[in-house]
Amino acid sequence: MVIFKKFAFDSAHFLPNVPDGHKCKNIHGHTYHLTVFLEGDLVEDLEWVMDFKDVKDVIKPIIDRLDHQLINDIPGLENPTAERITVWIWDQIKPQLPLLSKIELNETPTSGVVYDGK
Ligand SMILES: Nc1nc2c(c(=O)[nH]1)N=C([C@H](O)[C@H](O)COP(=O)(O)OP(=O)(O)OP(=O)(O)O)CN2
Ligand SMILES: [Zn+2]
Fold first, then answer.
1. Deepest in the core among 22, 26, 99, 100, taking most CB within 10 A?
2. CB–CB of 92/100 below 8 Å?
């Protein structure tokens, strides 16, 4: 069974490597929406895959590093494409969430990334 939990954070960024004149070279902001998916069997008696609270306890400190920050200032995120941010999040949370199967990061209502670690 697959469970999911959603998070949101507001951050500024710019993309330093795009050509001059590209709109994303300018500093701008997004309300990012992160969804984390965890896959596993139901735990006997509890009848859940994992406590949503325990998921939040892992993700929240990562969100707090991004929320209301200029993402480019964070080591490893100097070129903060949605793809790069997604891998950065995955690399930090996967060791703490063995059941993690996929994450989805929406940068805008119409654009985003789905990543399963491959
Ligand atoms: N593959 C990627 N392409 C783009 C990224 C990215 O991270 N990966 N980032 C940007 C910009 O930062 C920003 O997200 C703009 O994206 P875009 O979808 O063009 O945003 P709009 O609000 O203009 O979208 P519309 O729905 O088309 O109005 C650009 N590309
Ligand atoms: Zn952007």
1. 100
2. no
